[in-house]
Design goal:
Organism: Piscinibacter sakaiensis
Protein name: Acyl carrier protein ACP1
Order of helices and strands: HHHH
Radius of gyration: 14 Å
Number of helices: 4
Number of strands: 0
Pfam family, one: PP-binding
Structural class: mainly alpha
InterPro entries: ACP-like_sf, PP-bd_ACP
Domain Carrier: 16-97
Strand content: under 5%
Shape: globular
CATH topology: Non-ribosomal Peptide Synthetase Peptidyl Carrier Protein, Chain A
CATH class: Mainly Alpha
Number of domains: 1
CATH architecture: Orthogonal Bundle
């Protein structure tokens, strides 16, 4: 018998698929007037990119914790990097998800 188990839900999916999933989450959670496929995954989430504010990020963090099974903490020193773009957020989710 092999000790190899099937991939768990926490296994890293295709990075582009996770980026698309998060784009849909952003559009739905924040009621954005853009289609998820129109979001630039490399654009900044704050400022000139998507123009989100801290309340928007709190809403997204709640949705991510419910969907992916881990907590995004407001006191994490890496938040600036984590929330730089959808792409950086997707990389963080891929590393920490439990579902």
């Amino acid at each position: 018998m092999s000790d190899v188990s099937p991939a768990s839900p926490a296994a890293s999916p295709d990075p582009a698929a996770l980026e698309r999933e998060l784009a849909v989450l952003f559009v739905e959670a924040l009621n954005l007037e853009q289609a998820p496929e129109d979001l630039d995954v490399g654009a900044p989430l704050f400022g000139d990119g998507l123009g989100l504010d801290s309340i928007d990020i709190l809403e997204v963090a709640l949705e991510i914790s419910q969907r992916y099974g881990f907590q995004l903490r407001s006191d994490d020193e890496q938040n600036h990097q984590i929330f730089r773009s959808l792409r950086s957020l997707a990389a963080h989710v891929a590393q920490h998800r439990t579902r």
